[in-house]
What we know:
Blueprint: H1 2-41, H2 44-61, E1 95-96, H3 103-111, E2 116-123, H4 131-141, E3 147-154, E4 169-175, H5 182-199, E5 207-211, E6 229-232, E7 270-274, H6 275-294, H7 302-313, E8 318-320
Parallel strand pairs: 1-8, 2-3, 2-5, 3-4, 6-8
Antiparallel strand pairs: 5-7, 6-7
Helix pairs in contact: 5-6, 6-7
Amino acid sequence: MAQSLRVLSGKQKRSLLPVTSFLLVGLILSFCGYSYLITQNQNPKSKLAGASKAVGQLHSQQQLKRLPRTVYPQPDVLKPSRQDVLLVTPWLAPIVWEGTFNTDLLNEQFRLQNATIGLTVFALRKYTLFLRVFLDTAERYFMVGHRVNYYIFTDQPDHVPHVLLREGRQMVILKAQSHARWQDISMRRMEVISNFSQQRFLGEVDYLVCSDVDVKFSDHVGVEILSSLFGTLHPGYLKFRRDNFAYERRPQSQAYIPEDEGDFYYTGALFGGSVLEVYRLTKACHQAMMIDQANGIEAKWHDESHLNKYLLHHKPTKILSPEYRWDKEHL
């Protein structure tokens, strides 16, 4: 038995020799690697060289841009520019009123984006009569000094007037289907804008402004209105409580808003934002209207009702004051 045990012990020793050698080699290599890493980590020149190389690559890929020297009055943090109106919403979105911004400063800052603005308008049937005034006044007041694409949706391309455009601006005439009722024309524009945003606008412009064709620009409308998603306060409901807004109050409709909900009442005549956000808005409104149509119901103020429902649950990042929609009725 003792002989057998000695033989077994000898076999174990011989079989452990390769394993022991392998472990020793592994320990030596690990120690060398660890020592190298410590040396590199303790070498500040090596770290700075790596950081400098990364920064250099970043600078070569993107040149830093800065505003030119601009002289303007210093803002006073203790004195708001307007004290008679609300300037910011509870979700911290600015409300744009006259006298609350510096046009020159905004223009200089916006030019660094090298952006193009798209302006969509629908001129179907007799509404082509409004195009001349719309385009003439837009050329005088809308986004002056910036690149603009006018996207005119019409069923009568031959009735689109020829207007001399400023440099960097172009007119794009797009064929659109007309409908018997003006309500259908108004509602279907959500579908059209949604489709064209996905198929075309995303590759051509950075922002979309969606306007009614019977708008007459009478004063500056510039880059101060642009944001990821903006809506415009309806001048007719400026002093109303939300339980008296013209929201859709029937629960059967997708545009339904209860009387104890709502922030503001937005007009459907002027809204916009980045192309992606406008696509999301118009697609959601169109889908909601199709559900209503399938259920045999039509919202009180059609696409405007659905716009208000969308902006209730997807807060705009900027709101335009009713000054952007004043007309003779509200003066």
